[in-house]
Amino acid sequence: MKTLIVKNDKTILHVSLNRPQVRNAFHPEMISELTLAFKDLKKNKDVRCVVLSGEGESFCAGADLAWMKSMFSFSRAQNKKDAEKLFDMFQAMYDLPCPLIGVAQGHAMGGALGLLAVCDIVVAHEKTEFCFSEVKLGLSPAVISAFVKNKMELSQMSRWFLSGEVFTAQQAKDMGLVHEVTSQPQVVLEKLNKSFLANGPQAVRETKSLLRKIARESSSAKLKKQTTDLIAKLRVGTEGQEGIKGFLEKRSPSWRSV
Description:
Blueprint: E1 4-9, E2 12-17, H1 28-43, E3 49-54, H2 65-70, H3 76-94, E4 100-104, E5 107-109, H4 112-117, E6 121-125, E7 129-131, H5 142-148, H6 154-163, E8 166-168, H7 169-174, E9 180-182, H8 185-198, H9 201-216, H10 220-236, H11 238-248
Parallel strand pairs: 2-3, 3-4, 4-6, 5-7, 6-9
Antiparallel strand pairs: 1-2, 7-8
Helix pairs in contact: 1-3, 9-10
């Protein structure tokens, strides 16, 4: 791939945006490669965790300026098609069955916050700057809003979507967009990776799927069925049986790799 670096460290897979010369700003080729990469990863049951990062000094500066300039002559229909491809990229990342960890440094601007919003856990360097910058250009963070709403309350979205102000990593944490703020993201990342390698891989995937379901389900009857069905399934499953036996026998279960 031209715009991504993909490395497989046993069962931890690293996907890094690789356009550091433009602060990893995305354009059609990167959008296409990210979409394909995450659709392929959805089929890979051996991967326990995926780490998303950016090469160089910044995580991602949002949309590429040259790409934006090329859209001046686009029709409304062409712009809609272009936006749909961007939405499909975020959706492919959001649909990843295993945990997705985002690591941000430098700058995370505009659409980059959509990348962080689809991550299950986000670790940010303490000096990272964030901004929903679209309104400064006379635009709207419309496409990413569908994913940001899963992390932030509407009141917070109103403040930062409408003002276009730059905010800090600590503010991003306070509003739920970021989970860990640190001067050493790699140390936190290694700790998280060890946690996922110690957990039952099927249980983690099933739990992530459950989180997606309960986020959109309001019926208590359906929630009762979904949650009780899942725990019953896992209790009698091979992984659950091995995990319980390992605990009772004071040994590590066979699937634990740390």
